[in-house]
Structures
1.
Amino acid sequence: MQEKIYTSNGNIMYIYRIMKKYTDVDNPLKVKEIIELIKQEYGEELSSRTVRRNFKVLESKFDIVISKVDDSYYMDYEDNDFDSSEIRCIVDMVNYSRFVDEKLAQSLTYKLINQLNENSKKEFVGYEKYMKDNKTKNKEVFYNVKTISEAILNKKYIEFDYYKYNLKKEYEFRKAFSVFPLTIICDIGQYYLIAADKEKNLFYYRLDRIKKIDIVDGKPINISKEKLNNYIHSTVGMYGGEKETVKAIVDKQLLDDVIDKFGREVQLKSNNDDSFIMETQVNLQGFKNWALRHLENVEVIYPEKLKLDVTETLEEALNNYKK
């Protein structure tokens, strides 16, 4: 015998779903409009008395605020809900992140937008992203995140194959690794695994270049939080190494970039109307690459070995162009 479904028991859910889907402070609904939408979407006919009674239940039992404007009602924004501006930020991060492949980005965008009510969804009509085709083709990134997170939680090792591009713009196998995962961080639009080998040396790996990952047993490695933080904070663009004091004269037009890149701990001192002197503790290789990217706006003045290294790199580049 088929079990009977008592649809009237769902009255409060019908009302809640309609209010959440269609109403906000700018788009309240009259009770008769709520009744009509419930009939259209769920095939159930409710009385106005039932709707108003369930409004009170939502407020008293579930702390859901139903506000009234004249003869219309709307559901107030809930603390655990996203508003459209928050969803927009997350959608943009998904679509402009290089570690999320195109198909997954589209799927996540659809899911995120569907968290909004029908009125807010209209803000995304015609949404497009504008970026070069530099997204990863590795569809295993989110699986990698899940597997690495599980390994970290259970203090296990991971084994994986590591890939890099060849001149045909294809991923090719480079090396297999077995490491103890410590954390996952995001830097310059990429996801990175920070891990240790059995000698407690720290390394980083791009998650979008990891394939065929497995969790394996092994003796856990204890890395102090201080050592891990120093390793992470000593990098620029994920170049590992020890931190050293660096000073440079920088054009003022790069001030925002300097603070964004090196953090609020960076020391700044005015040099003249057009430039300032920055001082920070950072990995030299990473700083060199950053300085070369802003060649016309950055002059390294300390340490001398870094200044010489930058000079030699520029001389080599100049000689290559003279050939």
2.
Amino acid sequence: MNDQGVSALKLPIGRGAIESSICRVVNLRLKSPCIFWHEDTTNEMLMLRSYYKAGRWDTLKNLEFKAA
């Protein structure tokens, strides 16, 4: 992480807030009632969600088409 750049923007530099946010997303999105995941598909769903939320969905689609 670029701590100097982050602190210049007056953003928190502690890792705790980031780790807490990640746990919260996992708990809210993947541990809902009546939802059951296998460990392999959970990791894949987290990867897909990460690409989508980061605005990199097209990058993922391009990687898929190249692999096919």
